[in-house]
């Protein structure tokens, strides 16, 4: 049976991590590298390896924020860089999916992958724009975490068939496209509701 880690041990571990010559920005860039590798592997149709690289890159995206808060090394530019790289990374991988479908003359799935990329950017944009207006912009079911899980499954199992003639990669792209559009509409409606409520109360 494992012994629970004591508060002293946790504090020492945290201090050790803080003392490392590591910055949140370096972790963010490592996440970008992982996603670029995933995109190249996907373009070459090495689905499982692409999925693994995408998952590792996405883990880095999660860790940079936590390390920033824990270490106190975060900066305003670091937060901006993290958000920007998140958008770039998702776009790169989905662009690679577009290229794979185009290579096989699969125009429908190439178009849907493009829609998934655009709608994922709109999900992020609507949140940022709402928060820029002083409103809550986090409504909707298609958060980045949810999209990462769906795309990870589609990549790792990209060569597997869900049913006859339907691979999991196209299926995940369909879900991402629909989820992105739906979440964008949810956030637009949420912002509209907040503004209408503010007008009534004002």
UniProtKB/TrEMBL annotation:
EC number(s) reported in the record: 2.7.8.-
InterPro entries: CDP-OH_P_trans (IPR000462), CDP-OH_PTrfase_TM_dom (IPR043130)
Lineage: superkingdom: Bacteria
Keyword Cell division: no
Keywords: Transferase
One function term, GO molecular function aspect: transferase activity
Ranges in coiled-coil conformation: none
Protein name in UniProt: CDP-alcohol phosphatidyltransferase family protein
């Amino acid at each position: 049976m494992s012994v629970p880690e004591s508060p002293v041990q946790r504090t020492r571990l945290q201090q050790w991590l803080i003392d490392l010559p590591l910055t949140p920005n370096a972790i963010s860039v490592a996440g970008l590298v992982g996603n670029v590798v995933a995109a190249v592997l996907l373009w070459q149709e090495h689905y499982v390896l692409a999925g693994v690289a995408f998952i590792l890159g996405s883990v880095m995206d999660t860790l940079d924020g936590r390390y920033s808060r824990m270490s106190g090394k975060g900066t305003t530019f670091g937060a901006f860089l993290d958000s920007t790289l998140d958008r770039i990374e998702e776009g790169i991988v989905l662009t690679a999916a577009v290229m794979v479908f185009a290579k096989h003359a699969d125009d429908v799935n190439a178009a849907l992958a493009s829609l998934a990329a655009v709608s994922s950017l709109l999900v992020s944009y609507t949140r940022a724009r709402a928060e820029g207006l002083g409103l809550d912009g986090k409504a909707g079911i298609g958060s980045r975490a949810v999209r990462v899980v769906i795309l990870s499954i589609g990549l790792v199992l990209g060569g597997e068939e869900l049913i006859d003639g339907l691979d999991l990669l196209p299926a995940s792209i369909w879900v991402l496209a629909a989820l992105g559009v739906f979440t964008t509409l949810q956030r637009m409606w949420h912002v509209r509701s907040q503004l209408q409520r503010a007008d009534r109360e004002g």
